[in-house]
Task: structure prediction
Amino acid sequence: MATTATVRSRILRPPGGASEYFISVTPAPAGSFAAQARAAAAAYSAAARELGLAPASAVFRRVLLKGPAARLRAGRDPFSLGRGEGPVALSVVRQPPLPGGELTLLAYHVQGARPPRKRRLAPGHLAVSAGGLRHLWSTGLNGRPGLAAAEQTEEIFKSLSGTLRRVGGTLAGGCVRTWLFMGDIAEAYAGMVAARRELFRRQGLTRATHYISSTGIEGATGGKGCLVGLDAYSVPGLRPGQVSYLNDFSRLCRAADYDVTFERGTRVRYADRSHYFISGTASIDKTGGILYPGDALRQLKRTMGNIGALLRSGGAGLRDLMYLIVYLRNPSDYRRVAGYLGRNFGALPLAVVRGAVCRPGWLVEVEGMAATAAGAAGLPRF
Result:
């Protein structure tokens, strides 16, 4: 019997601007890795055709794997849409999909009157222009084996900073979103947090200015000895008035209150749309305390309430979400969590994976992105 796959998609179609497409593909958890990869590739290709997407519209793909990340890097990208696609930012993370499949695919496309212009600046860095500003997707920046977690963090952020300088940007003035993956979060998290804090201080990112929306989660992106990996999304050339930071202090404190240097969420406005980047969010109260210890479902409900509050602070809501990634500490919680997600977010592009959160008491963490067609005249177009 052929392996099947579940496909979900969301589309943002601002009047007169390029459209953005968010797609998730999850093969049924049966059969070999090869069979599931073939099923996911076929379903993704069929979805692209049904949505009318040209291969060149593909910008970013993240593959969440049960097995080693090198399983995909060793050969051709099995999810390529073929001739004319051009370069794509590819993120490969070992985070086992739940309830037990081999992989889940998340894909992002941009399609307008003309194909986006894409250029590989350096290994791991892809520049994309859709008509307005240049967007930089950085993926698979892995720490070198033999270095401590703090040293690896310093090194991979230097790679990102160097590429940003090449295109006229900086961490403080261009980086919008980061993902930090640690193969063993208990071992690497403290070193990563300390190194990031010091590096940001040197580059002018402080509590008085701003930090960057981020997820720091367990997940392997490199080979043996790679303790920290980084993906990032940057938009060099953003004006100060384009960016604002999301919070609802009746529900969440700033992460900086417990000395962790990231923003809860970031809104980026353009002339024709707004993007909302939601950091890894958990079941916390306004003092940073863990709510509902031991109960993953209640933690998930609080987490989604927190995300809704973050979005409302920027003029959006849960209805505007484009995708979600749900990280579960314990696979045994999947059934209850999946039931809630299905009832409330059944049509949304979604990945549920096993990934330990930085605090042992957190059983679930959620990240996502929302988008609306609400922009502001006088700002650059997307």
Notes: The chain has a mean pLDDT of 94. Helices lie at 33-50, 70-73, 149-166, 171-174, 185-202, 296-313, 334-345. The chain has three domains: 1-115, 120-238, 276-382. The first helix runs from residue 33 to 50.
